[in-house]
Amino acid sequence: MKIFIKNFLGVLILLTIIYIVFLGFNIFKFLNQSDDLISVTDYKNTIEEYKDNVNDIYSELEDIKIVSENSSIRLNFDGTPVSWVLILKQDKETKELEAIREELMQNGFNSFIFNEMLHVGPYLNKTKFEKVRQLLKEELGIISVNIEQWN
Asked: What's the rounded Cα separation, in Å, for the pair 143 and 88?
């Protein structure tokens, strides 16, 4: 039995040594491959290309003079942004408020019914409401709507 254990441990040690040599050889091959390595100069050139592209895009945007619609956000005394909501009251000539709300939601406008009035918004900028007004006028024939500050 002792001979069997000795032989088994000897074979196990021999297999461990062979495995370590195999791993070492593969690590050596991996580290010496030159086709997958990136050099410092390649990296610097790539970074410079990205910087040039970003600078080109910035210069194009400056030429177009794009101004964000949120660049003029006003704040309340407590730091919350001043927002606006469009309010539509139910009258005899308009469709039911729930149907109008569904139509607005399908067209991507936030809307909800509160105190038997349809509220569209709130939005930080009044310019969004021109699209809503156009939709209400063209699709539903509604002309009279109020825009109020939302607190």
From this structure: 10
